[in-house]
């Protein structure tokens, strides 16, 4: 059993799981998937296409005839991590195809690694396939190479990420994602729901809905109607959530901006159709910092919204991320953020220390905060967030809750409550009477112990 503190970088996806076993003579491709869950979904799509063409997927460099590295370009530290992964793949395999967000800067990659076979940008699936075909020609056997109904997944079988749109229409000064992934492009509602239904039919117990801006879903297609089960459904997050909630799986929403219509999701949570969990990237609380970020500056109104959400759904769990040390942030502005956090009492909190990213407009802002000050503010912020988490979890002792089992080993079962997303939030551990449990089971437990991020419980 692995215990927290969890990884507080919310741009990271769970570790990709690859369990393919190639047949003799089958061409084999390796995959290194970096960055966020949205990139993980891109990796799954690429591998699904390759599996359909007869390729096997290797979990290691030595077993692959070529390696795809799906990169991240969210922060300069993420870019460095991507370059290091490319270098490692070149050293251990030699044939490397690069894709993903950092692929939008091909000269940056080839300048560091001129021996890569090809560089493609994010969600350029056809170009990736072309590069693979050139490096390792396909050799399909239609009688053996059967594709699973769900395609290739890189997460455990009982949960799956479901991407509902690409791109983003926001122009936050610290972010270059719209430059790399483009403006908002929403999938038709029927296509999303059909995928969700297939996943649930294949045994998925939890759907994690993701996009760059989930609450803006459908804006670009004017919330157009799609035929679904003899009726029509709007391309709108409220309608989409309601329909997915009827499929019988847990539905968890990520990356939801606090637009006014988000309050329409809360009754669905109170009804039990979707999980009472909102992942909202507030980023800061001081209006001047938010303006310098080019984000909506309404922290006081946000507190009113939070109060309304909790009134309508007392069990709601709020997760958010924040940036400390943004250019120009004064000690008084940072104190406002700490005071806001005291009042908001968010359940799950992650934070970044601000970093310059090549191409971001925030690089040109005056009064950048020294590294040692950023570190101090980060430590103080996380100390407060941790204290809030610890107090909220302590209040759970003695209560009875549902959990989903993620892993079972000789020491016990590692589970998650409805308040916990995979690998970025906490866990609940069962260390007695767990032997009959298996991943994907949803069981009821009584909480008997709490820590800073995790809970312990016993089966009821």
Automatic annotation (TrEMBL):
Cofactor(s) needed by this chain: [4Fe-4S] cluster
Keyword Glycoprotein: no
Cofactor annotation comment: Binds 2 [4Fe-4S] clusters. One cluster is coordinated with 3 cysteines and an exchangeable S-adenosyl-L-methionine.
Entry-linked CDD domains: Radical_SAM
Top-level taxon of origin: Bacteria
Record EC number: 2.8.4.4
GO biological process, one term: tRNA modification
One function term, GO molecular function aspect: aspartic acid methylthiotransferase activity
Residues binding [4Fe-4S] cluster 2: 168, 172, 175
Main location: cytoplasm
Sequence ranges assigned to domain MTTase N-terminal in this UniProt record: 27-137
Compartment annotation: Cytoplasm
Annotated residues for binding of [4Fe-4S] cluster 1: 36, 72, 101
UniProt entry keywords in alphabetical sequence: 4Fe-4S, Cytoplasm, Iron, Iron-sulfur, Metal-binding, Ribonucleoprotein, Ribosomal protein, S-adenosyl-L-methionine, Transferase
GO annotations of cellular component type: cytosol; ribosome
Domain Radical SAM core: residue ranges: 154-391
Pfam family, any one: TRAM_2
Keyword Metal-binding among record annotations: yes
Domain TRAM, chain residue ranges per copy: 394-460
PANTHER family per record: RIBOSOMAL PROTEIN S12 METHYLTHIOTRANSFERASE RIMO, RIBOSOMAL PROTEIN US12 METHYLTHIOTRANSFERASE RIMO
Known role: Catalyzes the methylthiolation of an aspartic acid residue of ribosomal protein uS12.
HAMAP family cross-referenced by the UniProt entry: MTTase_RimO (MF_01865)
Family: Belongs to the methylthiotransferase family. RimO subfamily.
Protein name: Ribosomal protein uS12 methylthiotransferase RimO
Organism expressing this protein natively: Stagnihabitans tardus
């Amino acid at each position: 059993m692995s215990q927290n503190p969890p990884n507080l970088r919310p741009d990271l996806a769970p570790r990709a799981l690859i369990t393919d076993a190639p047949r003799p003579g089958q061409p084999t491709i390796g995959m290194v998937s970096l960055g966020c869950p949205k990139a993980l979904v891109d990796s799954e799509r690429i591998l699904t296409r390759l599996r359909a063409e007869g390729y096997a997927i290797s979990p290691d460099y030595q077993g692959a005839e070529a390696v795809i590295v799906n990169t991240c370009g969210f922060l300069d530290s993420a870019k460095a991590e991507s370059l290091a992964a490319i270098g490692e793949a070149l050293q251990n395999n030699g044939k490397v195809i690069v894709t993903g967000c950092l692929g939008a800067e091909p000269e940056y990659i080839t300048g560091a690694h001129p021996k890569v076979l090809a560089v493609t940008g994010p969600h350029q699936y056809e170009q990736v396939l072309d590069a693979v075909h050139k490096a390792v020609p396909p050799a399909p056997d239609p009688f053996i190479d059967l594709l699973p109904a769900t395609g290739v997944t890189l997460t455990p079988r009982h949960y799956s990420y479901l991407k509902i749109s690409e791109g983003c229409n926001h122009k936050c000064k610290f972010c270059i994602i719209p430059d790399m992934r483009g403006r908002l492009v929403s999938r038709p509602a029927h296509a999303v729901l059909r995928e969700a239904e297939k996943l649930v039919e294949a045994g998925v117990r939890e759907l994690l809905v993701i996009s760059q801006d989930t609450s803006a879903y459908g804006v670009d297609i004017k919330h157009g109607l799609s035929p679904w089960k003899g009726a029509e459904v709007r391309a709108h997050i409220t309608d989409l959530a309601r329909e997915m909630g009827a499929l019988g799986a847990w539905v968890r929403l990520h990356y939801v901006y606090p637009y006014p219509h988000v309050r329409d999701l809360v009754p669905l949570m109170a009804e039990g159709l979707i999980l009472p969990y909102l992942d909202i990237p507030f980023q800061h609380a001081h209006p001047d910092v938010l303006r310098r970020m080019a984000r909506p500056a309404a922290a006081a109104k946000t507190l009113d919204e939070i109060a309304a959400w909790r009134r309508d759904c007392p069990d709601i769990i709020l997760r958010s991320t924040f940036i400390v040390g943004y250019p120009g942030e004064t000690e008084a502005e940072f104190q406002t953020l700490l005071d806001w956090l005291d009042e908001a009492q968010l359940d799950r909190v992650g934070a970044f220390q601000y970093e310059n990213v090549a191409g971001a407009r925030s690089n040109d802002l005056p009064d950048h905060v020294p590294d040692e000050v950023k570190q101090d503010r980060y430590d103080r912020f996380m100390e407060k967030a941790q204290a809030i988490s610890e107090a909220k979890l302590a209040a759970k002792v003695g209560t009875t809750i549902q959990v989903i089992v993620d892993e079972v080993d000789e020491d016990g079962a590692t589970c998650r409550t409805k308040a916990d997303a995979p690998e970025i939030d906490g866990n609940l551990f069962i260390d007695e009477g767990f032997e009959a449990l298996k991943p994907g089971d949803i069981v009821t437990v009584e909480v008997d112990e709490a820590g800073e991020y995790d809970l312990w419980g016993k089966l009821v």
